[in-house]
Amino acid sequence: MIVGGGIAGASAAYEMARAGADVVLAEREPQPGYHTTGRSAATYLESYGNAAIRAITGASRNFFDNPPDGFSDTAILTPRGCLIVATERDVAALDEELNDPASAGLLTAVTQAEALEMSPILRPEAVARGHYDASAEDIDVDALLQGFLRGFRAAGGNVVTDAQVMALDRSGEAWKVQTRAGNISAGIVVNAAGAWADQMAIMAGAAPIQLLPKRRTAVTIDPGEPAADWPMTGDIAETWYFRPEGGALLISPADETLSPPCDAQPDEMDVATVADRIERATRLKIARLLSSRAGLRCFVEDKTPVVGFAGDIEGFFWLAGQGGYGIQTSPAMGRIAAALAAGDELPADVAANGLSADDLSPRRITS
Asked: What's residue 367's pLDDT?
């Protein structure tokens, strides 16, 4: 039984069912992907995150470029590019990223003039220099999620919605799970409950991983001019970013505000903050918002996902802490979860990127 129908649970369910496991995917909401998955900035960015995240992101690339036959009727990725700029005050941080060996082959230094040509809405005073990642692409999150769910069902998997977990009890070799949609029995419970993952662990009698849900806000505006070809653009200090979304422009203050698990909603102060920051960095004048949303990005202290069996209770498997990287890592993360839950080694291509099961294990936190 997988608890949580976001991108993490859906990708794991897809891989586990295709490997022959009997899997039920239980989602607390009326439809999968309601919370953070459906509110993502939807960008594939190989230069984003720590070493573990980059290893998993890199191992996901082939799936995105070459999904299985019938997975999706449309391309999952669309070229976008990502431009990060720095003021004179922050160029040292920019150079540090450019000189990081992990960024070799990914980031290209750009001048002020080049940055202003790429993102013509920027104010010159907001840009001293920048770097550009040509590998960045837009992700069609709905196509990706629905592809996983469709493939899961085709492999015999069962999706149960409105199935909030009320109680978990380990009896003999199986879990007895009480949900609002009925009772489910399973040998293994996979905890892909997102912001509620620690609550799920405590309910099961497992030690929590001290998960930190952090709210991030995004709003969309009318840019007032054609913006479809602009790259995703942000500042090196991570205080704002924007990217085209349909015919609109998505803008965010890149906020990380601690939050209890909830149906996250935009805070008025965060909306005002991003409007101010974007107006300072660009020529945009924000008169009205087209839409607004917020989601919870969930981290543990080292910002590396937690994947593997709990060390303190039998048959309880963690799949949590993907932070802001869950969409772009989901193809490889699903394979990782399926392998480790079956007692196998990490997929060879993931291990070849320098990642080990110990790097992901919940025991690094709970032991």
From this structure: 80
Flag whether pLDDT at 37 surpasses 80.
no
Tell which residue, 110, 50, 121, 117, has the closest CA to residue 85: 110
pLDDT score for 41: 76
Do the Cβ atoms of 330 and 144 come closer than 8 Å?
A: yes
Helices (H) and strands (E) in the chain, counts: 11, 21
Question: What six digits make up the tokens of 54?
Answer: 């980059």
Q: Which residues contact 345 (CB under 8 A, 6 or more apart)?
A: 339, 351, 357
Rg (CA), the chain: 21
User: Which amino acid is present at 260?
Assistant: P
Give CA torsion, residues 43, 49, 53, 55, to 10 deg: 90
Considering only CA atoms, which of 141, 206, 143, 186 is closest in space to residue 25? 186
The DSSP letter of residue 319 is E
DSSP code of 101? G
Whether 170 contacts 205, CB under 8 Å:
yes
Residues 319, 8: contact at Cβ < 8 Å? yes
175-200: average pLDDT: 97
224 pLDDT band, cuts 50/70/90, is: very high
* Domain annotation for the chain: domains and CATH numbers: 2-73+140-209+301-366 (3.50.50.60), 82-134+212-299 (3.30.9.10)
| Cross-strand bridge partners of residue 178 | 167, 183
Sequence-distant (6+) residues with CB within 8 A of 226 are none
Those residues with Cβ within 8 angstroms of residue 290's Cβ, 6 or more apart along the chain or in another chain: 219, 220, 221, 222, 248
The structure tokens listed for 206 are 């497992």
Q: E strands, 56-161, where?
A: 77-79, 82-86, 107-111, 129-133, 137-139, 158-160
- CB neighbour burial string for 276-305, b if at least 16 within 10 angstroms, e if fewer: ebbeebbebebeebeebbbbbbbbbeebbb
